[in-house]
Structure formats: C-alpha cells, structure tokens
Amino acid sequence: MESSQPERPINLMRGWPAASVLPTDLLTKASATVLSDSSVSTPALEYGPDAGYLPLRKSMSKWLSRHFNVEEDINRICITGGASQSIANILISYADSLVTKGFWVVAPCYHLVCPIFEDAGFAGRLRGVREDEHGIDPVELEAEIQRLERSERNAPDQPPSKDVPGRKLYRHIIYVVSTSSNPSGKTLPLERRTALVNLARKYDALLISDDVYDFLQWPLSRSSPLDWTPEMRLPRLADIDRELGVEGFGNAVSNGSFSKIAAPGMRTGWIEASPAFSKGMSMQGSTKSGGAPSQFSAAVLSVMVQDGSLEKHVNEVIRPQLRDRHLSLITAIQQYIPQARISASSYAGADVFGGFFVWFTVNIGLSTQLVAQAALKEGNLVIGSGGIFAVSGDKSGPRFDDKIRLCFAWEPVDSLIEGVKRLANLLDRMERNKELYQKTYTQSMGQDWVTANK
Ligand SMILES: Cc1ncc(COP(=O)(O)O)c(C=O)c1O
To answer: A Gene Ontology MF term for this entry (predicted)?
Structure first.
C-alpha cells in the first residue's frame, strides 16, 4: 500500500462541464440583451406562462426540427427546470403507485435518477434491464414485462391514488438514455429504438428518454471533420412515436437539457412529446402556482438559441474539446491499463462517441468499490465504481462490481492522463496484494459522496 498521497486532487467521477466550455461571454451578452429592453425583461422577470417562455419554445422547436429532420411544432415543447426536475414532474403527472405496475430502468443507469423515482414513491419497485453491446434489449425487456403482467393477471385493478386532470397514468414507465448513455456511453440503434416504441405502445408504457447528450457526439478520428453523420442524428424515441402516429398522449417523451450544452447552473431544459403530453406537463400544480420553471434563464438562453450562438458554441467549442479529452483518455487507458475492456465507440459498427463518460471492465478479482476507496486514499483520485450505477433497490438486478466509470468532461487532458496513470499503478498494487486491500477497504463511499460527485 502507498502511504503518501499525490498532492494534486484529480476528479474523474464528476460529470460536470469544465469551466473552459461554459459559454460565459455569450451568457453575459444574452443577459444584457434581455435586461436592457423592458419589453423583454418584464416578461422574463415575471411569472412565466405554463408551457414556458414562448420564444425559447419556438427557437428550440426550430433547432430540433432542423437537427432531427422533423416538422416544427411548438405545441410539442414545454420548458422545464432541467432534466432531473423534469423527470420528477413527469412522474407526478404520469405515474401512480397503484396504477403503474412496472418501473423499468436501463442497467447500468444514471445513478442519480433512482432517487428521483424513490422520492416519487416508487422505492423498491425499480427493475434494471441489462444493456448488451447495443444498449437495452427490447426482447429482454418484453420478457420481463410479460412476467410481471402474468403475475398481475388476477390482481384486481385499483383506483389511482391521485387525480391528475388533463394527464394520464401509464401502466409502465421505462427509463433510458437512448444516445450516449450515462454511464455506458452506448447509443441505441434505430431498430432497437423502433422496437422499444412499439413495445411501449403495446403495454401502455411511457418511455422517458434522457436526451441530454444528443448534441454532444463526434467522430472518433481526430482528423475527421466534426460534421453530423447519420449515426449521430438518430431519431429520438419521441420522433419515432410521432412518426408512427400519435393520438392523445403518446408513449415517449424526450427529456432535454441545457446543462451540458450551456451550463447546469441555468437549470433549464425542455421536453418534447405529443402536444397532449406537453400540455399535461404544464398543468402541474407547482407550475400553475409558480409559472413555468426557469423563466429568466429560458429568456437568456432563448437569445443564444435564436441567434445561433449556442449551436455554434456547441459545435466549435464543446464538441472539439470533448473529442480531444475523450481520445486522450481512452488512449491513456489502453496504454496504461491494457487489461481494461473498453468499447471505443458509442454505436456498435460506427466510429462515433458521445456524452461525458467512458465505462470499462477491470478484472483484478476485487470490487471496484474497493478500488475507488483506495484511489481516493492513496491516489488523491476520485473515480466512479461500477456498483453505484446498479439500479437502486433491485436486489437481484445486474451488478457492475468489475466496472469503472471515468468522466472526461471535467478535468483537463493532462489530469486525465495523470489520473489514469495513478489508477493503473493502484490496480497493479491491488492485484498483487488482494488480501490486504480486501481487509483495509470494505465500506462504501456513502450517498453524500456520490451526490457531491454526481
Ligand atoms: C442521463 C442524465 N440525465 C440527467 C442528468 C442531469 O440533467 P440536468 O442537469 O438537466 O438536471 C444527467 C447529468 O449528468 C445525466 O447524465
């Protein structure tokens, strides 16, 4: 074991955008634009309309329609307080502890989504559905749903525990990150997307897709231009649902966010779904009382979306930096941890990647939970151990004790490389001294640590 710790802390767990990609100048200018004209500042500073700041709904509808090649329709878009708060609100309006029977979550999952479900009253009811090389498998999911439906066959229908006028309570909720998933980085191919939507339609399920990384993808080669190739612009689940024809609420909602393409502190996002679904989102009690979430932030962002400066920032600042960091990180992993099993691409069969994270397997015969503790203690290094990304409360669900998640969005390239070297040395020491490490580190890091490091 190593008794002295390197001085410089390195955090490869934190899933935040680096300061170098925050559009501070654009936000300064856009805020001044909003505040210098009372015809803009007054509505921006008052309570917002229930569906959210109209110019942002319009400009997002334009951008999304151009990017995903879908028809513009602002009635499908509602402004939210970011993806996390939006999930909580979706669950308030569209899920119920008595009516909703199945809560299916891609496994591994974005670890902080579980507490949102738990707070909504669904603790202990989440079931993980394992990803294979292409992401979540609709065939496996259907088998699980059928199993649950069989066990429910003779159970009497129960009245809902709440009344949600203008909305509906689905029988199943399915949570996925269709593109560049957190933590696995995987992107679902088109056939699986279509199969998932058909499945949702068949079983009265709502697909919630956190589409927070769709705008953050790049080709794997450093020399390729950052043009958007077809594999990087796959239709969202909500687009497929729409294409198949929606009457009423539909079965898929795209949960978007400005956190990774602008700044998490703006606390603004959007959902796109059927007009009925979107309207339902704006009918929540908290919105009726407080107006749409994030009204001022939405007004500022709308300036940057309308004049194209945010899209330019994404394409000219964020994507190049993420590609550079990602390639540096995987090169370092391949060089210093040759035993790591890592998938270079997000999308099996294409040379693209996206999101903030790499996810890989190390087989040293010890849980990566111990590796994470030892990394902190001996290496002044924070990493994400796989176990954190198991679906919470699903005791017989998939476990990931041989996995590690590293974020390449937060630390600069030199720290990414230095962090991998520290990890490689540690893995080597641990493999040679298994018993000692097993005895020394047994506790988990605890929930506060996990939340603080996102
Ligand atoms: C899949 C996923 N969903 C949601 C979030 C949080 O989004 P927001 O900041 O919009 O609440 C994150 C952030 O890491 C994420 O990775």
So the answer is: 2-aminoadipate transaminase activity
Query: Which of 116, 210, 215, 267 is the best mutation target for the ligand 1 pocket, counting ligand atoms within 8 Å of the beta carbon and taking the most?
Result: 210
Average pLDDT, the chain: 96
Most informative mutation of 16, 84, 450, 454 for ligand 1 (most atoms within 8 A of CB): 84
Q: Which fold would CATH assign to domain 10-22+311-441?
A: Aspartate Aminotransferase, domain 1 (3.90.1150)
pLDDT digits (tens, 9 = 90+) for 341-400: 998 899 988 999 999 999 999 999 999 999 999 999 999 999 999 999 999 999 999 999
The count of other CB atoms within 10 Å of the CB of residue 38 is 9
Using the atom order of ligand 1, give the atom closest to the CA of residue 15. Answer: 14
Amino acid at 244: L
In which element (H, E) is residue 427 found? helix 413-432
Is the C-beta atom of 180 inside 6 A of ligand 1? no
Ligand 1 center to 213 CA (angstroms):
9
Q: What are the sequence ranges of the domains in the chain?
A: 10-22+311-441, 29-307
Helical H runs in 122-272? 138-152, 190-202, 237-244
For 198-243, the pLDDT digits (tens) are 999 999 999 999 999 999 999 999 999 999 999 999 999 999 999 9
Q: Identify the helix (H) or strand (E) that includes residue 89.
A: helix 83-94
Give me the CATH topology for the region 29-307.
Aspartate Aminotransferase; domain 2 (3.40.640)
pLDDT for position 7:
85
